[in-house]
Amino acid sequence: MPLPAHPPGVPVAVDSHVHLHDLRDPAALLDGAYAALTGCLGHRPPPALLILTEPESRPTFARLREIAAAGRPTADLGCWRIGTTDEPISLAARHRTGDTIYLLAGQQIVTAENLEVLSLLALPEIADGLGLAETVLRIRQLGGLPVLPWGVGKWLGRRGTTVSDFLAGDSAGPLFVGDNGGRPGLWAFVPQFRQARAKNIRILRGSDPLRCSFRRRSAGSYGNILRCHFDPARPGQSLYDALTAAGTALETFGRHESLWHFLRDQIALRIS
């Protein structure tokens, strides 16, 4: 599938925390992301990159790669067609309008401390249950980017201290913290974000759509805009190079959740 060329230094939109809750319906993810991106960024949004941060038990990226390798449209893709790129960690989903959304490999990992870590731009090969430091090391060894994502209650108490201690001590390679669209706007103070900024650890934004909030807070509804030398044949490498370059500015698009929707989602999660 031919890919559109983009001039150097173009803006790209990145949602670094995406889940596909129903593998039978990838078109729903793409349709929702396309609607969210056009709603946030205009009728012709910049090239969009969605990073699929799925648990190891849910082989989303592998399934989508099988569809791409088959090279033919399928009923569950609707008006989309998925193709391969020149790297193993990315796919290109082309809408019938010609717009393209790039799907990048990632993983959500739960550590021995019961903390979540995201691995970006690497195939999902890391088991749950390792210590935080070992998990981050494994991600770097795979060539990925480790992210410590904020989560409701997960950065408080003992676990919050563990995150703070790790941010204070780690300097062995790239590291990011993650914010997500599910954090209510009124929850403004997050000590670890302030700590990260003081250490020049950058904050990546992602939608983190819940199953119960999918229709309202879809992939592509919250993320970062950055400029990079974007190669549509190697979008993952383009993003890696940009995020590991000290001078890359990260702007935010989208907004946080309302308090009402946040509370409703938390109740729905606990009774589901």
Explain what you see.
The protein is an alpha/beta fold and 272 residues long. The protein has a single domain, classed as TIM Barrel (Alpha-Beta Barrel), CATH 3.20.20. 29% of the residues lie in helices and 24% in strands. The chain has 7 helices and 11 strands. Strands 1, 2, 3, 4, 5, 6, 7, 8, 9, 10 and 11 form an 11-stranded mixed beta sheet that branches. The longest helix has 16 residues, at 26-41. It starts with 9 loop residues before the first strand and ends with a helix. The mean pLDDT is 88.
Main attributes of the structure:
272 residues; alpha/beta; TIM Barrel; eleven-stranded mixed beta sheet; 11 strands; 24% strand; globular
> Care to count the β-strands?
11
**Mean pLDDT metric:** 88
Q: Low-confidence spans: pLDDT under 50, at least 5 residues?
A: none
At the fold tier of CATH, the topology name is: TIM Barrel
Q: In angstroms, what separates the terminal alpha carbons? A: 41 Å
Structural class: alpha/beta
Order of helices and strands: EHEHEEEEHEHEHEEHEH
Oligomer: single chain
- Helix content bin: 25-40%
The biggest beta sheet reads:
11 strands, mixed
- CA radius of gyration: 18 Å
Q: What CATH architecture do you see? A: Alpha-Beta Barrel
Q: How many domains in all?
A: 1
CATH class: Alpha Beta
SS summary, helix count: 7
Report the β-strand fraction as a percent range: 15-25%
Brief sketch in words of this structure:
The chain has 272 residues and is α/β, with parallel strands linked by helices. The chain has seven helices and eleven strands. Strand 7 (145-149), helix 4 (157-169) and strand 8 (176-180) form a beta-alpha-beta unit.
